[in-house]
Amino acid sequence: MKQIIILIFFIFSLVNAKEYQFLEDKNVQNFINKMVIKHHFDRVHLEYLFRNAKLDRDTLARYVGKRKPNTTDGSWVRYKTKLLDDKSIAYYKEQKQKYIRVLEKASREYKVPINIIVGFLAIESKFGKYSGDYSVWNSLVTLGFFNNRKRGYFYSELGEYLLFCREQNYDPLILKSSFAGAMGNVQQMPSIARRFLIDYNRDGKKDPWSMADAIGSIAKFLRSKNWEYGGDIAIPSNFKGRRYKGLRVGYNKKYSIKELERYSIKPIKKFNRDYAYLLKLKDKTKDEIWLGDKNFRIITRYNPSTNYGMAIFKISQELNN
User: Fold this and answer.
1) What is the pLDDT of residue 10?
2) pTM score, whole prediction
3) Where are the domains of the chain?
4) Is 134 left (phi over 0), alpha (psi -120 to 50) or beta?
5) Which one from 19, 24, 94, 124 is the annotated catalytic residue?
């Protein structure tokens, strides 16, 4: 009996180990046809790329079914303990000085704060330490052709990736990224890289892994969203309770200051706008309630997450200390 069970397990493993053949998928063939007709790609080359694509089950599991907490974005506790700890802040200060010339140049040209740019580099990859070791190609092909809650988005990003690689002369099979296909020091998806990545060091190539190009691209992104230089980002509220259970909160939940006051939420200092985004940071024992200004919402245009935006903001504050 034991031998039969082992044999069944062995056969099951062999079946699972068999590589998925993407070229046999009609949707893949339709995609190839579209890229050939619309963007003039070479069909033989695209078939070669898909023949070498591998199903990434780890990546797919993150997007199948209802969103699982902290699988695609961290909790506030994780941000606080892993990215806002004293050792990390000291490292960010060192890196800020290392790249101060290009940071100052980008700040002058695009009129955005140096410390906010540093915050993006810190959160996205810790200045290139953790830019990802997943295959961009395998991740995007898997997510673009297997059912998941963001399949349409990743299908579009796959096309953008092929265009990006052709424009910058990259081999699509060799680039590495996060599990979702975000590349380089500021973790840009292909569509963002095509739109905002710049050759800021003027070496003839737009390179997501170049620190100068990453700094320039973040500055360009913030300026394109109408960053208000010198404007507020977020201001603490007067909330002193343990857990907040009032109005709905979030990076995109906007209320008038008067409405917030009716619910006993007030900024602790003057707020220069008649509306605010109601933000909650859920710590281990209590909540922090903040009021986000226009510049906070601009940060979250890059990554729609309250925790993400507040982590960048708090890092920028620590860099002044």
Assistant:
1) 40
2) 0.89
3) 19-66+132-182
4) beta
5) 124
